[in-house]
Amino acid sequence: MNRDRGQAAVELALTLPVWCLLLTAVVQVAVVARDRLAVQLAAREGARAAVVADDLGVAAVAARAAVSLSPIIVDAVSDRRGVTVTVTHVDRTDVPLIGALLPDVTVSATATMAWEPP
């Protein structure tokens, strides 16, 4: 008699929850990485727009228009050398199974651009 019948099914049943948890963790990390890149893009776009338009109010509009994240906080500071824009976004960890285990991640990026010569 073959006593090993069904061994593969049992091993799959035991390891499948671990694999599912691992897969959802990878998806959550990918979502946070994507949002981090979007925040970096928003900071660069905001700084570039403020430097070109010579107006700090344009930085927030350009940063919000550059990405589809909501809500984002845009802070623009000007000095004699250029404009520094900081964009912050609280990324909710809401991927099923793993999202409840992880705290929300705050993603922030800063970009500085020199003033454009007239």
Task: List strands and helices in order, with pairings.
Layout: H1 7-53, H2 57-66, E1 72-78, E2 82-91, E3 105-114
What would a concise description of this structure say?
By secondary structure, this protein is an alpha+beta fold.
Structural notes for this entry:
- The protein has 118 residues and is α+β, with helices and mostly antiparallel strands.
- The protein has two helices and three strands.
- Helix 1 (7-53) packs antiparallel against helix 2 (57-66).
Can you give keywords for this protein?
single chain; 118 residues; alpha+beta; three-stranded antiparallel sheet; 3 strands; 23% strand; rod-shaped
Instruction: List the strand order in the largest sheet.
Output: 1-2-3
Instruction: Average the pLDDT over all residues and give the rounded result.
Output: 88
Secondary-structure element order, N to C: HHEEE
The assigned structural class equals alpha+beta
Number of domains: 1
Assign a percent range to the helix content.
40-55%
Shape by Cα distribution: rod-shaped
Separation of termini?
89 Å
Report the major sheet. 3 strands, antiparallel
Low-confidence stretches: none
DSSP helix count? 2
* Number of E-state strands: 3
Q: What portion of residues belong to β-strands?
A: 15-25%
Please state the CA-atom Rg, rounded to the nearest Å: 23 Å
